[in-house]
Amino acid sequence: MHAEDIMLAVVAVTAVGWLFVFAGLLAAPPSARWRDRGPGYGDAQESPAVVSLLAGRLGRDGFAATLLDLSARGWFRLAPPQGSKGPVMCVVPAEAPVEALPPHEQRVVTHVAARAGAGGVVPAPALSDGFAGGQAGFMKAFGAEVAADASGRGLTRRRLSPRRIALLCALMLVPAGALLLALNHAHRPDATTYAVLSFVAGCWLAIGVGARRRRTAAGQAVLRRWRAATAAQSAGDGRLLAYAAALGAAPAAAAAFAPPGRNVAWSNYRGGWQQIAIETNTASGRAALAGLAAAIGGTLLFIGVVSWLATHGLAALVGDMGPLIGLLFLAGLVVWALRARLFPRFAEFDGQVIKQWMVAGGEDSPDEYHLAIDDGARAKAWDLKVGSDLYRQATPGALVHARVNLWNPGAADARLVQPAAVAPQLAEPGAPRDPRAPAGHGGAVGGAPFDPRGHGSAGTSANG
Question: Residue 410 to residues 183, 289, 305, 324, 379: CA-CA distances in angstroms?
């Protein structure tokens, strides 16, 4: 056997050995720091969101389960619509419960207060949009707070401790060094590069896998307990229903908070809550430009045709077209005189922000900040690009004044008129009120509390 073959065999053996050590550390029991926390640790206070995290369903059910739990605890009431159709309504009580909340639940309560506004009433599906700062940022922060709560209770842990990750990185020096020696023996000029890359790849694998979290023994016990409890839940226990939703066992209850869909948002700017489509293109500006281009182009084409006829011995035909030419000339003058009305360049309006989102830029383009604004008149809400300062101030529910260049809708000038009002029961003293809120709207929705499993009061139905 050649020396090169021997050295390559050594590289392979050391690499396989490192992988075996890696797998062994993943399968090894946790350190004593985690073993000290028995299965009963943190049993009393884990929230439905934490349970959904333990079940691997946080992204699908954690937010809706939190809303159901907050409703069961009195932060708002679920009520059926007044008519035979419509969404389930969330009604904020006259007084908020006196209860300390973990950060992720406080974030959701703040969102409910902002969506309910001064009237204190919001459709349940509207709680799944209109997030301050955008849905992506809200859900990311919500998930991080739930994960921190679960970790603080000892219900989750890292797959590998920092010490074990450091050990794996140190052991990776063995196969990387063997590879360096083998490539140097083969007189490869890029030996050092390959050796460094192999070391970095091993450390990246150890850190990437090891930093992920897994359930501890306490977390496994909590998950088993809630699965058993919700399997035999009482029909009238709202909190158990929330935990069932967190485990994916109550989809009908979570459906009350189903989001409105893509490019659609809920607005209460027109005297009552309704869904408004969001304009996703610049069709209005393009249509105006196309109409103007067609008028100018048609005129030039007609002049060209007349010239061609006159130069090809068809002057008599041109003479017969004299009256038509005159009418077209007069029509052109009328179009030119009314061009500002027929093809307006600017639109100026007051409106309410109903949605925010950000489009991350690349290396050569900045981030884009978008506001969907309902002006109370158009069939669709405006999609306007704004600056980062206005984006932070004009959260959903805020009133703004905008001036839009219809020929270039990206060039919009908008300013904040009034910050978003929140439900006064959940707001700090002195919080602004929404002047457009209908009088008495907070008490307009009555009836018995709504059962999100589909057992509402007689003669009503939910259309979430």
Answer: 56, 15, 38, 41, 19
